[in-house]
Amino acid sequence: MGILSVRNVNKRFGGLKALDDVNLEVEAGTVHAIIGPNGAGKSTLLNCFVGRLEPDSGSVTFDGMSLLGIKPHEINQAGVSRVFQTPEIFGDLTLIENVMIPAFAARDGAFTLNAWGLVTTHGEIRARALAMLTDVGLADQAERPAGQLSRGDKRRLELAICLVQNPKLLLLDEPTAGMARADTNNAIELMKRIAGRGVTMVVIEHDMHVVFSLAEKITVLAQGAVIAEDKPEKIKGNHRVQEAYLGGAQL
Ligand code: ADP
Ligand code: MG
Q: 44 C-alpha to center of ligand 1: Å?
């Protein structure tokens, strides 16, 4: 059983079966990609991991704990962080303020207690937030309003917001969408670094260059159903996968 275990998950929107008996095991410490044509159900599936949607049936467990029927912040406290398809940041606040907010609320007490058991100071939180911004290459823009950032930089800010919470599982929904190639390559390097620290990652991604650079395992969704799950080199040659991407696909 993986650290994230998805069993027989179904989700309907009216007459549409958005998820059709989905099974998925994500091994701890790996990068697992979910790919599939537009409308395949990828975001819907991720929404079922973070309390945004409740499946009609099936189970989702993380580290042995059910993620269903609990609040998004409880899922977050369990160590699951998500970068949304559309960046969710506070545009009027500065970058560092955006990262400090979740640092104050961090799950395991590591930032609310320091080595002497004292409540962490504002300065310590700030230092930690700045370290995260440095990590994603945004430290020099720390005092700018977040709303002024380019799209690629907003995604990096979102990553910093996730990382400050010390996630065990990071969920990324199209992290490189709309990025130019140079930004995409930077994002790949950043995600590799995060994965290198042992954070388990689930990445939904359109860009096959990103998928094949990062993923150790790939699950392919089409019309809500898993049609393949394998190592990247095997997925490339999979007939069903090529068929699912109309027009002979960019695999
Ligand atoms: P993907 O992320 O793979 O592109 P989605 O998970 O966003 O696909 O959507 C899967 C299908 O479910 C699509 O047909 C989409 O239109 C539909 N869908 C997604 N969310 C909703 C919703 N809240 N209400 C109704 N239909 C939805
Ligand atoms: Mg989507």
A: 6
Range of the domain at 53: 4-246
Ligand 1 contacts CB of residue 34 (under 6 A): no
Average pLDDT, the chain: 89
Count up the domains in the chain and report the number: 1
For residue range 172-231, list pLDDT tens digits in order: 999 888 788 888 998 899 999 999 999 999 999 988 899 999 999 999 999 999 999 999
How far apart are the CA of 78 and the centre of ligand 1, in A?
26
CB-CB contact of 136 with 156 (8 Å):
yes
Q: Give me the CATH number covering residue 135.
A: 3.40.50.300
| Ligand in closest contact with the CA of 219 | 1
Query: 9: phi > 0 → left, psi -120 to 50 → alpha, else beta; which?
Result: beta
The ligand whose atoms approach the alpha carbon of 40 most closely is 1
**Beta strands in the chain, from DSSP E residues, in sequence order:** 4-13, 16-26, 31-35, 57-62, 65-66, 80-83, 169-173, 200-204, 217-222, 225-230
Asked whether residue 251 is domain-assigned, the answer is no
